Amino acid sequence: MPAVSFRREWAAQVRYGAALAAGDLALAAQLRADAGNELLPKRSTVRRAGRARAGEVLHLFVDQRQPTCARLGTVVCLGVTPLALAPDAAGFVLDGRPLTAAQSEAFARLDTAGQWDAAALWGFFRATYADAPLALYLW
Q1: Has residue 76 got a pLDDT over 90?
Q2: Is the pTM of this model over 0.85?
Q3: 3-class DSSP state of 69
């Protein structure tokens, strides 16, 4: 049962996405209302390949291994897709297919719940994972 930790800036979006995935529409509605109806769900994450398989339970946390650690939800991994960084500084290769600039931008906005563009996400992945094999985990 893999545990996944998220940055505090995405905690509300991850919790909202987990509530939707679990079918807890009352909690999802409350979270969205608390955010002034401006909340976008985060229902995916990019990590090193091999962390989880489809069908496995993912435990979602914020500030894991910190005194402020909190559980954001528990979800079932629906799918795992290989992801690579394209040689240019804002492109992605999803399941062996290079994404266009517009697709890379849309992917970045979806993965970060609208907070980062493709260039920012590409730079974060390069700095965090260097050349490690990556995968997109969906719930």
Answers
A1: yes
A2: yes
A3: coil
